[in-house]
Design a protein that fits this description.
AMP kinase activity; Adenylate kinase; 9 helices; 5-stranded parallel sheet; Rossmann fold; Adenylat_kinase_CS; cytoplasm
């Protein structure tokens, strides 16, 4: 089963993806985690995307698509993937559908986490204070939220046209959100 956790930055996609990995043995494909690892490694890719992410801008499609494609065999071996933070644009969604179709697979469900944007800003400020992630500061979050609303939110129409979107209340406790996800699966 291949799932997309869908929602704005800070809505809990990563937290819920990790739970799905633990509970169902799926592979989490988080472009954010992959890109942060590239930055930490000091690789050419990491140097290329560091400034982009710190500004809150979206990393170019060719980079994130290549990262995802490299991890698909691992996800297939595990019986499925939880896509976290990908796709972010219709072009990425189309590329993902094409990649998966070429492997005899597809996106089975898009789980949209419904959240309040003002509450997200508070969540991000707290996470920045605790973890100090440079791409998670309140200022870059605002830029990421605008990018989400203009570039990523239109993906809902793309996946709704395929009948794949299911909504889950993302404002409850981690356990309540996880229970909502489990009920939809």
């Amino acid at each position: 089963m291949n799932l997309i956790l869908f929602g704005p930055p800070g809505c809990g996609k990563g937290t819920q993806a990790k739970r799905l990995v633990e509970e169902r043995g799926m592979v989490q494909l988080s472009t954010g985690d992959m890109l942060r690892a590239a930055i930490a490694s000091g690789s050419e890719l990491g140097q290329r995307v560091s400034g982009i992410m710190q500004r809150g801008d979206l990393v170019p499609d060719d980079v994130v698509i290549a990262l995802i494609e490299a991890r698909l065999p691992e996800a297939e071996a595990a019986g499925g993937a939880v896509f976290d933070g990908f796709p972010r644009t219709v072009a990425q969604a189309e590329a993902l559908d094409k990649m998966l179709a070429g492997r005899g697979a597809r996106i089975d469900k898009v789980l949209r986490l419904l959240v309040d944007e003002e509450a997200l800003l508070k969540r991000i400020a707290g996470r920045f204070a605790e973890q100090g992630r440079p791409d998670d500061n309140p200022e870059s979050f605002k830029v990421r939220l605008v990018a989400y609303n203009t570039q990523t939110a239109p993906l809902l129409d793309y996946y709704q046209a395929q009948g794949k979107v299911t909504e889950v209340d993302g404002m409850g406790s981690m356990d309540a959100v996880a229970a909502g996800i489990s009920a939809q699966l």
